[in-house]
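in:
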């Protein structure tokens, strides 16, 4: 997720990726538990100029394609978290809450690795832009991160700004779908202690880890897995998965969706994320079969 220099026209994306492709994905038959969630999710809106799909046309990933390409179960007893650089006390508290949310979202414990100073990043993987320093994500992914044999993934979190390529202005985070590593930044998330800061940090974290499970960007619904090119687009997407992406995650991790939603509802309740709490409560009710005859 990030911003390239220059803005494409949204019509180019519409020409490259037919709108009926998103409709085809929404029409895919899925597990009845997840079918019950469909009307809680809005179809993905057409991209405006500067949005992710205006600059990065994507075909989308069906559940059938995901299941065929990713036989279960994915192996891993934990998710490893590396802190890169310095964090203020409020930022460290946000990191603690994010680790808790990741555990609830994926059903695996988060194990914190020995922190690393930003000084470990060479000058060749740094630049100054917008009056501050930025760190090259691809160097971090390649040189700093490698999951332990018993870990599902290794992720890095930093308070420094990030960029993935000289042609990009910045990136919120980046992950490798094949190497199970990812890095994301809290630099552009606002003021620590603000609910928006926490929500943005949670959102980026679980988005990037979901990529490590092989879940690609979603073009079917307004979904956690939508790509985002700028902060307003990122803020508009939810912190939960659409029914299609949820089935992919549960296929990969063999999770109990009702128990998972209840744990997420509890987190949202504890941290005053009221709209998210309402969604998780209703989703837990629906996937458990309450009011639907247990079909």
């Amino acid at each position: 997720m990030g911003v390239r220099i220059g803005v494409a026209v949204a019509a180019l994306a519409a020409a490259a990726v037919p709108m009926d492709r998103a409709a085809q994905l929404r029409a895919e038959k899925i597990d009845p538990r997840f079918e019950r969630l469909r009307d809680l999710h809005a179809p993905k809106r057409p991209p405006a100029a500067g949005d992710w799909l205006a600059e990065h046309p994507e075909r989308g990933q069906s559940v059938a394609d995901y299941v065929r390409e990713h036989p279960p179960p994915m192996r891993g007893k934990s998710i490893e978290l590396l802190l890169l650089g310095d964090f203020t006390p409020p930022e460290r508290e946000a990191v603690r809450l994010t680790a808790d949310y990741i555990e609830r979202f994926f059903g695996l414990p988060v194990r914190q690795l020995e922190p690393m100073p930003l000084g470990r990043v060479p000058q060749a993987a740094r630049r100054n832009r917008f009056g501050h320093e930025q760190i090259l994500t691809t160097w971090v992914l390649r040189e700093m991160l490698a999951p332990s044999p018993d870990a599902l993934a290794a992720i890095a979190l930093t308070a420094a700004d990030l960029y993935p390529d000289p042609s990009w202005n910045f990136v919120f985070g980046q992950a490798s779908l094949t190497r199970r590593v990812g890095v994301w930044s809290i630099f552009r998330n606002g003021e620590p202690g603000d609910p928006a800061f926490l929500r943005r940090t949670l959102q980026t974290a679980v988005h990037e880890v979901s990529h490590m499970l092989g879940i690609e960007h979603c073009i079917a619904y307004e979904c956690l897995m939508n790509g985002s090119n700028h902060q307003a687009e990122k803020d508009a997407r939810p912190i939960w998965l659409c029914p299609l992406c949820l089935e992919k995650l549960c296929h990969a991790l063999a999770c109990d969706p009702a128990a998972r939603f209840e744990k997420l509802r509890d987190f949202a309740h504890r941290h005053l994320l009221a709209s998210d709490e309402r969604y998780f409560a209703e989703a837990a009710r629906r996937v458990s079969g309450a009011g639907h005859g247990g079909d």
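note: The first helix runs from residue 10 to 16.
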